[in-house]
Amino acid sequence: MIVLHALGTAEIDTGVTTLTPSQEIVFAAALYLILERGKRVGRERLASLLWPRVPEKARAHRLRQTILQLKKLGLMIRADRDNLQLSQFDARTDIEDLSGSDPAPFLKKDSLEFLPGYTPRLSEQLRDWVESKRGEVHSLATKILVSEIERSRSTISFSMVSLSTGSEDSSFSPSAARKSEVKLLRSPSARVLGSQRTRICADASLT
C-alpha cells in the first residue's frame, strides 16, 4: 500500500522506498497520481506539468522513463497509450483521516500544514494544482478546528447549566474550560494554518 504523508511533512512511502521533494520529478509524478487516483490521467497532461518547455516527443519519452522508475519503486500504475491510472485501492493519504470520527490525534500534531515547504518549480500549472489541493486541505482542517471549539463550548454551556441546578460535579470550572478552548485555538495545528487562523477565530467568534 502506497501511503502519502502530507500533513506536517512531505513523504511518500512506497513500501520499497520513501520519496521526498528532493527527488523532484518522481515525487511530483507520484504525488499527482496518488491525489488523482481512481481517475484516468492523460499522459500528455502529466508530461506537460513536469516538462512544459520540452518538445512533445522528448517529454513523452521522459514520462515513459519516469513511469518505469515509479513502477520499480512500488507504484502499481496502469498504463495504456494515452492514459495512466493508479487504483484508489492501491494508495491512501493521511488527509483522509481528517474526516475520521476522532480528530484528537490530529489536534495533537505539530502541524496540519499540507506538504510544508513544498512549492514545485517544474511548471506554473503544477504549482497551481498543488496550491488548489493545499487550499482544500487547509479548509477541511479549519472546519475541524472550528467544530472542536464549538463542541468545547457546548460542553461548557451544558456543564454550567447542570452546575446551576446542582446536578453537576461542583469541581467543574468554567474558567478552566475556557482555557482549554483557548489552548485549542493556540495549538500548533491551528497556528500552522497561517492566514486561515483569522477565519477560525471569526467562525468561532473568538476575535
Topology:
Elements: E1 2-5, E2 11-13, E3 18-19, H1 24-35, E4 41-42, H2 43-50, H3 56-72, E5 77-79, E6 83-86, E7 91-93, H4 104-107, H5 124-164, H6 174-185, H7 188-191, H8 196-203
Parallel strand pairs: 1-7
Antiparallel strand pairs: 1-2, 2-3, 4-6, 5-6
Helix pairs in contact: 1-3, 2-3, 5-6, 5-8
Share in β-strands = 5-15%
Q: What portion of residues is helical?
A: 40-55%
- CATH C-level label of the largest domain: Mainly Alpha
- CATH-defined fold name of the largest domain: Arc Repressor Mutant, subunit A
Sheet with the most strands? 4 strands, mixed
Average pLDDT reading: 80
Give the tally of β-strands: 7
SS summary, helix count = 8
Named at the architecture level, the CATH assignment of the largest domain is: Orthogonal Bundle
**For the terminal residues, how far apart are their CA atoms?**
43 Å
Poorly predicted runs of 5 or more residues: 180-184, 194-204
Q: Taking strands numbered 1, 2, ... along the chain, how are they ordered across the largest sheet?
A: 3-2-1-7
Structural class comes to: alpha+beta
**C-alpha Rg (nearest Å):** 22 Å
Give short descriptive properties of this protein:
single chain, 207 residues, alpha+beta, Arc Repressor Mutant, subunit A, 2 domains, 4-stranded mixed beta sheet, 3-stranded antiparallel beta sheet, 8 helices, 51% helix, elongated
